[in-house]
Amino acid sequence: MSSALIAAAVCTACAVWMWTGPDLATTRLSRLTGGPVGPRWRSLGRLLPRTHPARRADAWRSASIELCQALSAELSAGRTPGEALTRALASVDFPDPETLRPVVAAARDGGDVPAALIAAAPPQGGEGLRRLAACWEVGVTVGAGLSALVDRVASTLRAAQAHRQDVAAQLAGPRTTAKMLAALPALGLLMAAALGMRPLTFLLGSLPGLMCLVAGVALDACGLWWTNRMAARAQS
Question: Do the beta carbons of residue 15 and residue 216 sit within 8 Å?
Fold first, then answer.
């Protein structure tokens, strides 16, 4: 009985490990609703490992919103575009500030700011920097109102952020249900072992049982993977 309970506990631990994988919905709901994240979350985003591209993309998007807001405020204060961008970049905590050093140098020395912004923008989460580069090209080269263009970009980015959070909230229920269903087989093993049915003797002690165990674990893992894949595609 004790060995069966220990084995069942191991199966439960495996299910819990699968359950506690990266959850995009929970991550995105932890952001502020409708504005940039605070300093604590910005610092956390900078420390996130590179193996979590979705989290880093969220941190980049939030920092881009802050950059647009800070740049608009500096331009409204009467500063030149280069000086305003330099001060705005210094006031925002980006996930990877080293990549923005060429942008700071271009803004300070009168270089090609749009090209530097595009080069610094990450593939995921860099939409704000690329839109800001287009605004800079139009505002500085053509002579349009840069402050108004930056305000428009910030408004668009905030609307997109709110939409992603709304989608994440709607997907939180289905994903939680899928994870609970994935853990039910392990709980069934615990209940059967507690009743003295010795399910692990069949699962681990015979070829048909071993085949059932492998098939069950594979189907359980495939179900979790498919659910996460559908949720990720809906959020993207």
Answer: no
Confidence tier at 171 by pLDDT (50, 70, 90): confident
**Beta strand segments in the chain, E:** none
Across the chain, mean pLDDT equals: 77
The distance from CA 218 to its chain's CA centroid, rounded to whole angstroms, is 27
Coil vs helix vs strand at 218? helix
Q: Residues for the chain: how many in total?
A: 236
Cβ proximity of 120 and 99 under 8 Å = yes
DSSP class of 137: I
SS (H, E, C) the chain: CHHHHHHHHHHHHHHHHHHCCCCHHHHHHCCCCCCCCCHHHHHHHHHCCCCCHHHHHHHHHHHHHHHHHHHHHHHHCCCCHHHHHHHHHHHCCCCCHHHHHHHHHHHHHCCCHHHHHHHHCCCCCCHHHHHHHHHHHHHHHHCCCHHHHHHHHHHHHHHHHHHHHHHHHHHHHHHHHHHHHHHHHHHHHHHHHHCCCCHHHHHHHCHHHHHHHHHHHHHHHHHHHHHHHHHHHHHC
Confidence of residue 40 (pLDDT cuts 50, 70, 90): very low
DSSP summary character for residue 110: T
Tell me, yes or no, if the pTM score tops 0.70: no
Q: Quote the crossing angle between the two packed helices 146-194 and 2-19, to the nearest 10°.
A: 170
